[in-house]
Design a protein that fits this description.
Layout (H helix, E strand, L loop, with lengths): L6 E6 L3 E10 L2 E11 L11 H15 L24 H10 L7
Antiparallel strand pairs: 1-2, 2-3
């Protein structure tokens, strides 16, 4: 049963950091490990420091899992999809802006 190097997929959410390790076994991806690190506060709470909470979650994750820093392939940003009932892009953007969604100029 040939096994290739594994990779970690990490999702940093509002309430917790979730991580899943996948390895290719006989040509198929197999989940070989997972980790779940809950934040003490929701990241969007007014009194929360998201940078500090994420740093603490990553430190806890790294203390429990062996990661080879020289083998990190890439770090991806956050992808978010929002669906509205607006009929046009301008209406949708106006609605989301009214709800407080940040947009770049």
């Amino acid at each position: 049963m040939p096994v290739t190097k594994g990779v970690w997929g990490v999702d940093i959410g509002q309430c917790a950091m979730k991580a899943l390790r996948l390895e290719m076994v006989d040509g198929k991806p197999v989940a070989t490990a997972f980790d779940y690190v809950e934040h003490p506060k929701i990241l969007s709470q007014p009194d929360a420091d998201p940078d500090q909470l994420i740093r603490e979650a990553l430190d806890k994750f790294l203390s429990r899992n062996e990661i080879k820093y020289d083998e990190v392939a890439s770090i991806h940003g956050m992808d978010i999809t929002i669906v509205t009932t607006a009929k046009t892009n301008d209406e949708g953007k106006a609605l989301l802006k009214h709800l407080g969604m940040p947009f770049r100029a």
